[in-house]
Amino acid sequence: MLTRRAVIIRGGAATAAGASVLFLWAEPAEAGPILAKTKNIPVGGGKVIKGKYVITRPSKKVFRCFTAKCTHQGCTVAGVSGGTINCPCHGSKFSIRTGAVVNGPATRSLARKKITVAKGVIRLA
């Protein structure tokens, strides 16, 4: 005859064993698409990628990624210079560090995107 304690212990062991099997069968998450190589993003500048993203490099080891869509009227930003991401339509400028508005008419920051940087490659996370 099994005691209540024995049933609980056996049930817990079975659950732990099942969880281990599930963990071993789980496949690793795929890395996101490659956006750029780090060597192609200048320190203190950046680059618009496929008209969808803008990757900036505020300092040698820091990379940021933002949407390339201006928050004023949706134009695609044209480039990065002078420490800002620049929109050609109405002159809005955004910080290469934070995506915050530096010069209007835009009033909202660019949306930040998560990236990974490894082995000289920048990918969406």
From TrEMBL:
CDD domains: Rieske. Keywords: 2Fe-2S, Disulfide bond, Iron, Iron-sulfur, Metal-binding. GO terms for cellular component: membrane. InterPro entries: Rieske_2Fe-2S, Rieske_2Fe-2S_sf, Rieske_Fe-S_prot, Rieske_Fe-S_prot_C, TAT_signal. Its cofactor is [2Fe-2S] cluster. GO terms for molecular function: 2 iron, 2 sulfur cluster binding; metal ion binding; monooxygenase activity; oxidoreductase activity, acting on paired donors, with incorporation or reduction of molecular oxygen. Coiled coil: none annotated. Residues 33-124 form the Rieske domain. This is Cytochrome bc1 complex Rieske iron-sulfur subunit.
